[in-house]
Amino acid sequence: MSRANGGTQPRRPTSPVAGRSINRIPRAFSITSSLLLQGLLHVNVLFDVVLLGPGLLITWIIRAATGDAHERAYQILLPMFAIVLAAEGPRLALGYSGNLGERVPHLFLWLVLSFFPVLAMLIAILVIRANIQELTDAMCPSCLTPFEVVLICLEIVIVITSGTVGIFAMRRLIAVKTFRFYEQYFVTSMTELQPRRFYMLLICV
């Protein structure tokens, strides 16, 4: 029993090892969401809503109205742009859910969609533009405008950067969830059944 503020309070049994090792590690892993990844996702959403989506829609509407583009552009480039825009919504939703909700499957699916089909399609558009004769700048200048090329390049940079950060964020999330599983099912049982032996093991480690 110890006196505090004129009264007595029961003294809780403590262990210096438990205070240093067991209680400190969960606090270090209390926030597992990646702030950098969340910021990149915000940038990606703003870029898609303000520039990429409206820019591509406007250019293709103008292209269809004027009729300057080659027929191969509608057969090849337009479906690829449609796939990219259709995948952006679910991809970013999975990124938000996986990062903020600490869901490894959602984060993994976000990475898969980031590299395929989004990144693969964006790179393929530039490669096809440079290698198919009917779609080159010399044969069909309006098939892919410089403004669209800039949008594609910026989206590629954002996807690669966020994907790289997302890989490290997912690895950290897996490590934290593994630690929490170990702590819940193994550490608790060991401290309850053999506390002294467990504390000595922590000291040795």
From TrEMBL:
Alphabetical list of InterPro entries matching this protein: Uncharacterised_TM-17
Source species of the chain: Perkinsus chesapeaki
Gene Ontology annotations for the cellular component aspect, listed alphabetically: ciliary transition zone; membrane
Official protein name in the record: Uncharacterized protein
GO biological process, one term: non-motile cilium assembly
Subcellular location: Membrane
Keyword Transport: no
Entry-linked Pfam families: Transmemb_17
Domain of life: Eukaryota
Topology of this chain in the membrane: Multi-pass membrane protein
Segments crossing the lipid bilayer: 35-62, 74-94, 106-129, 149-170
Keywords annotated in UniProt: Membrane, Transmembrane, Transmembrane helix
